[in-house]
């Protein structure tokens, strides 16, 4: 009795193991890794970018004494608010895009696994994969532009941070930060902060500058991660589209083959019946 129970238990464990292997093997690992990387990059870009923009507003108000223009005038604060809304839209839009690309990966992987079964590849599935591949390529170009744009504040803050780190070397020189050079204020306004001033020393000693600079660095890293994720999605979608195309051709070949075999069988049956009637 114990031997029978041991055999049944071993069969049960083997069945569970095979089920787990089948489930793990059917996961679209390429799309799954790309989705995780995309979410991490977008979360890092949106979260750090939002806080870095808020830190920029605090620096402009506290040390450069820039005030918000009255009314609906387009100033640096309005531009920062627009960038924040763009960040909100990116977070929501790429969450939905990641879900769509991941679902497509699951369906395509299931189609490939059931290639020799009863599953049939539809033209709609191939068109959807091609559309998502075009969409992923488009957003790949968008993220390239976003990455280039995110490098600009990193470069500017790095210059300011380097001036703060080397204040002992610039004591003899009167270096100034003019916001007109960065397009933050109009040409008629003069918002300078020189190295010998008290506000410049306070800005360098505060945590706002250092934190904002490193937040922009993390924002750039998040944009780079999103670019890599879109490249992963492009490779996965291109491979899936090729597999679906081959599967469609194979399915058509099998349908034609089965149809011809059925016709040959019908012809053979008809001739057999005619011979039988002739003998009788």
From TrEMBL:
GO biological process: neuron projection development
Keywords: Membrane, Transmembrane, Transmembrane helix
GO terms under cellular component: axonal growth cone; dendritic spine; filopodium; neuronal cell body; plasma membrane
Localization: Cell projection, Dendritic spine; Membrane
Membrane topology: Multi-pass membrane protein
Protein's UniProt keywords contain Isomerase: no
Superkingdom of origin: Eukaryota
InterPro entries: Myelin_PLP (IPR001614), Myelin_PLP_CS (IPR018237)
Listed transmembrane segments: 85-107, 128-158, 213-243
Major localization listed first in the record, in broad terms: other
UniProt similarity note: Belongs to the myelin proteolipid protein family.
Subunit structure: Interacts with OPRM1. Interacts with palmitoyltransferase ZDHHC17/HIP14; the interaction leads to palmitoylation of GPM6A.
Name of the protein in question: Neuronal membrane glycoprotein M6-a
Lineage: Eukaryota, Metazoa, Chordata, Craniata, Vertebrata
């Amino acid at each position: 009795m114990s031997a029978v129970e041991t055999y049944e238990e071993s069969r049960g464990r083997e069945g569970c193991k095979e089920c787990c292997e089948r489930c793990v093997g059917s996961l679209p690992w390429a799309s799954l890794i790309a989705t995780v990387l995309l979410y991490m990059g977008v979360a890092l870009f949106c979260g750090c970018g939002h806080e870095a923009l808020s830190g920029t507003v605090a620096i402009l108000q506290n040390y450069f004494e820039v005030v918000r223009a009255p009314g609906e005038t387009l100033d640096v604060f309005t531009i920062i608010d627009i960038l924040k809304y763009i960040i909100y839209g990116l977070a929501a839009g790429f969450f939905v895009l990641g879900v769509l690309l991941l679902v497509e990966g699951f369906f395509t992987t299931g189609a490939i696994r059931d290639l020799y079964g009863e599953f049939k590849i539809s033209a709609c599935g191939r068109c959807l994969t091609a559309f998502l591949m075009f969409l992923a390529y488009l957003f790949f170009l968008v993220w390239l532009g976003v990455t280039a744009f995110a490098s600009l504040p990193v470069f500017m803050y790095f210059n300011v941070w380097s001036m703060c780190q080397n204040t002992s070397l610039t004591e003899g020189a009167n270096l100034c930060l003019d916001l007109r050079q960065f397009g933050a204020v109009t040409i008629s306004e003069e918002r300078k902060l020189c190295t010998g001033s008290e506000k410049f020393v306070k800005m360098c000693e505060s945590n706002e500058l250092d934190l904002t600079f490193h937040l922009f660095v993390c924002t750039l890293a998040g944009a780079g991660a999103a670019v890599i994720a879109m490249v992963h999605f492009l490779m996965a979608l291109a491979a899936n589209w090729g597999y679906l195309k081959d599967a469609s051709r194979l399915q058509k070949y099998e349908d034609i083959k089965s149809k011809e075999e059925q016709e040959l069988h019908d012809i053979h049956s008809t001739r057999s019946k005619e011979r039988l009637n002739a003998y009788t």
